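Hi W., the magnesium ion complex you wanted:
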Amino acid sequence: MKAAVVSFPGSNRERDIMMALERASGVKPSLLWHGDTEIPDTDLIVVPGGFSYGDYLRCGAMAAHSPVMKALKEKAAKGTPVLGVCNGFQILVEAGLLPGALMRNASLKFVCRQVHLRVEDSQSLFTNAYEKGQVIRVPVAHAEGNYTADEDTLKHLEDRGLVAFRYVAPDGSLAPEANPNGSTRAIAGIFNDSKTVLGLMPHPEDATDPHAGGMDGFGMFKSLVNALH
Amino acid sequence: MIPNTKITAEVVQEHGLTEDEYALLLKIMDREPTLAELGIFSVMWSEHCSYKSSRVWLKTFPTSGPKVLQGPGENAGAVDIGDGLAAVFKIESHNHPSFIEPYQGAATGVGGILRDVFTMGARPIANLNALRFGDPKHPKTRHLVSGVVAGIGGYGNCIGVPTVAGETNFHPSYNGNILVNAMTVGLARADRIFKAAARGPGNRVLYVGAKTGRDGIHGATMASAEFTEESEAKRPTVQVGDPFTEKLLLEACLELMAEDAIVAIQDMGAAGLTSSSVEMAARGGLGIELNIDHVPMRETGMTTYEVMLSESQERMLLVVKPGAEKIAERIFKKWELDCADIGVVTETGRLVVKKDGKVEIDIPVAPLVDQSPLYRRPHVPSPKRPEIKAANTKVVEPVAALKQLMGCPDLASKRWIWDQYDHLVGNDTIQTPGGDAAVVRVRDTRKALAMVVDCTPRYCVADPKTGGMQAVVETWRNLTAVGAEPIAITDNLNFGNPQRPEIMGQIVGCIEGMGEACRALDYPVISGNVSLYNETNGQGILPTPVVGGVGLLDEYTQTVGLALKNAGCALVLIGETKGWLGASLYLREIAGWEEGAPPPIDLAVERKTGDLVRGLVRGGKVEACHDLSDGGLLVGIAEMALAGGIGAKLEAAPKGTPDHAWWFGEDQARYVVATADLDGVLATAKAAGVPARVIGETAGASLTLAGGSAISLDELRSIHEGWLPKYMS
Amino acid sequence: MKATVHVTLKPGVLDPQGVAIGHALTGLGFAGVNSVRMGKFLELDLAETDRAKAEAAVKAMCEKLLANTVIESYRVEIR
Amino acid sequence: MKATVHVTLKPGVLDPQGVAIGHALTGLGFAGVNSVRMGKFLELDLAETDRAKAEAAVKAMCEKLLANTVIESYRVEIR
Ligand SMILES: Nc1ncnc2c1ncn2[C@@H]1O[C@H](COP(=O)(O)OP(=O)(O)O)[C@@H](O)[C@H]1O
Ligand SMILES: [Mg+2]
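Structure:
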């Protein structure tokens, strides 16, 4: 699997995700810069975490309009899988590739901690190495991960099974204290309609090493390799 | 302000210079200074930049050793960690700005220390912070905690450097003077450490980074003057941090450093363009000529005085090799940062600053720096405090006392704080906040750096020398407990007004103790910072010499944390317990008594004990390890139990030691380990000549004392985790 | 010319900041704060001298960048 | 009563957000954006019915919480 990671001024988790991708696939991903107008042929495009453009104005807003995003949208329209993590999720939402919006955490504070996620779909490109309903432990680190969307959008997401992950208690049940940011319906990650685009706030890439955060996030990268090798 | 203001006695005084200092200035200048020149002398001779009260004492620190690549004197210190790499680190205070504007003050403190480290050519890999706030009941405290924590997180999170450790204390002595000390650790190639000495007359001086505004003018002088209600009202223009620009500056600087372009580089921190240009020139024994007209400015009508003294953030000054200007320009343009040629290195030995073609500043650099005031201020030693006998202290049932201690502001969990810090970015944080020391992997090697900040001010006020020693020793112990070999320290000396002999006595005592400990442990001082005049209306803070320690693990998988992992392990107390309650947390929190001599320190015993423990950790003989400090043995065990979610059954105190002294005494040089190899541990300790004693066994979900008194971990956790979130809500 | 832009959350979109500020105000002893909504306020200095053109330009800026029209609405004034 | 509050950075205080937005607008092809300053805009719904009292209360809220008067100034309007 050959992946390309897009980086913006202010991205800061690109290296974390490149290492996770390389660990899973054995292939070093290439790194693209925000000003690139073309994206070479690739199996997967990843928009990593960080504070693109300082997260000023709105998280992801300025990055969403950078030249590379235009190229990314074209690729995505043709079916190239796209993964957006944290700031990457915010950017995909601002770019219109995923519905809804990510608002300030309900606590109004940045939150960095381990959370539990329930895998809501194990058939996708991104999640086939997990079981449906499996609970995994991965960290979050963000100030604006409070997912919100209008009722129609939420209904659409639920009806079509487009919610990829939800924040849950360790036993897999929904619980307010398990939701780190106040997201509507405890949504942690969503797919686009064709399930070729996934955006999520948590950082599975920081749970791909037994000595730093455990291995629970590795399944996502393994899934991608399974699907795209 | 106009440049040719008449320099009256009042103007001189406003600039914080004494009559004698002004007389010295006149001698050096051989004429009356312009206002801009006076401003430059004022900041360069401020306590913050000149260390005029502390310099003679700082010289007594041991600063060299086989691993030291760069000791004090540069932007940060550096030590060799093998594999051709260096660990670069320093600590810096931003106390006064954080009191005035907690968010921006703390944020720009982090920004400043990050720059000190990446100026050296190092990529920052971790941030730490040491915080001291006033009484939780004081009306300002909550607001200050909230702003400072958000500011530290806001800056570090955005730039993508994990904030991995810190400490937070509360005490009424900080009501009007909080302490915000920030430390950064970075990694550089050992053969590519960048320095700040200007070389090569004719070489161009480049300004890079953000534009200059009227931010924080006089910040350096403010950090050197006592606080009054009035100065709070004056509210100097505070600096606003821009971590996004700093991230770009970091990447651009590292990119330029990879080219063969830089002669010298220095960040513009306190006293901005002034201190950076003067220090660069002084270190190289040369002169610098600057043209104010070429300085990128974000405001109009700025005077030379303002430009030279502005403390706008996210700026650097470079001297580049001939012809390298183009390379710098290209790289900074790529990162959308300003890069301006603002001057040249000269042979004159003078700092000459021109505006509109006219010379507005012309100062001989060497005397400005070398002849800066140096004071051996009068000092009186702190009165010796009596030893406090356990028999004379209040006795409270151990579990009841434990509950009270685990929920007191100093011991309560600081999770509410570190949850707001991205402590994971980089995916190299092996030991996260909450343990004895953080451990961060060194990429592309098997190594890791352990790091910690620590100080116990109540010991320092009780006996400055012992307290200074203890601050060093505790960091050494924290590093040891995670299996690291302590390498070197940086320190931040926070004290009150040095013109008061009793405060100066604290400074001298602490420095003496710190130096002694560093020598005995081969643990040199490689960088540091001094913050004096932490007083409000004549009330000084507790003496707070914060120590930042860094240690090395050759194999990162060998580290252990404090969390108990399995039931059925033996808990072994290593080191000797006499039950020292003087100046202890028990005494303060339970008996309401801030009295007594602090626990004595035997450096040889510390070393022997620590070497034993490190060997046990690295040899895989223990599953968990924790050094004992604030609160003593029972608190230490409780912390281990909470971290792992596994309880313990504890044996009775040895005969002859009263319960409260045994469980809460703060004797030094002690660790608790959990082991499945009890015989091995005891035999190794015996061979090393270090006392070791089984004190219980890991079991269940509560702490149970001999005699049956017990507390469940759930209850203990809600006490321990509950205080800060509740206080802040 | 100067332009000001107010960006506010659309009615019905939950505003966590506004809610938190409202709580905090009540906590500080300010009684009778029924609700708080929080928005952004931008001041732009433009080279354009034609009022209508400036307004059109700023509206385009809002659509493109300054507001997230999924959840926010905006108001432009030219002075 | 309704109150609106504009909180803006005092002149001379660095506005990193404004600068970044200005850059971004230029990057998007909007020419002639000389500068952008970013502030906050709050709408409060108050139980108070006396105009002067409402104004005094909101000013107190600004001093205490809504504005950081070290670096920001504020403007209150009651409607
Ligand atoms: N307490 C101290 N112990 C050791 N070195 C110190 C101490 N205080 C300052 N130094 C050293 O003095 C030099 C000047 O420090 P400082 O003026 O704080 O740097 P900066 O200009 O970055 O603020 C640095 O090399 C610093 O490491
Ligand atoms: Mg420096």
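Residues 231-236 of chain B have pLDDT under 50 and may be disordered.

W.
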